[in-house]
Amino acid sequence: MKVRKNITLSREAILIGERAAKKRGDSLSAVVERHLLALAEDGNEGEHYCKKHKPIPRPGDARYEYLIRKHR
Questions:
Q1: Dihedral sign for Cα atoms in the order 48, 52, 56, 60
Q2: Nearest Cα residue to 30 out of 43, 39, 20, 40
Q3: Mean pLDDT in the chain?
Q4: Angle at the Cα of 32 from the Cα atoms of 29 and 38, rounded to 5 degrees
Q5: DSSP-based three-state secondary structure for 53
Q6: pLDDT band for position 18 (cuts 50, 70, 90)
Q7: Cα Rg, the chain, nearest whole Å
Q8: Burial 10-30 (b: 16+ CB within 10 A, else e)
Q9: Nearest CA-CA partner of 58 in 68, 50, 49, 48
Q10: What pLDDT, in 10s, does the model give residues 35-63?
């Protein structure tokens, strides 16, 4: 089921998205949807961890605790 959602984009992002959609024969909504779905396919579901940059200690924060356990 499709749901209508208003989002705010810069003019540059809109122009780039519309060009990409035109090349693919899609709509801007289809390009945005495909990109957002690809984010979930990365496997990390938005969590990013870089070994060079340790997360700021936040004991008790679920995301911090998850990253510490994941990368020990």
A1: positive
A2: 20
A3: 79
A4: 140
A5: strand
A6: very high
A7: 17
A8: eeeeeeebeebbeeeeeebee
A9: 68
A10: 887 776 655 555 555 666 666 677 778 87
Q: Tokens for 56?
A: 């700021």
Q: pLDDT at residue 11 above 90? A: yes
- In angstroms, the Cα distances linking 6 to 3, 15, 72 are 10, 17, 40
Helices (H) and strands (E) in the chain, counts: 3, 0
Does residue 65 sit in helix, strand or coil? helix
d(CA 20, CA 24): 6
Q: Cβ of 71: how many Cβ atoms within 10 Å? A: 11
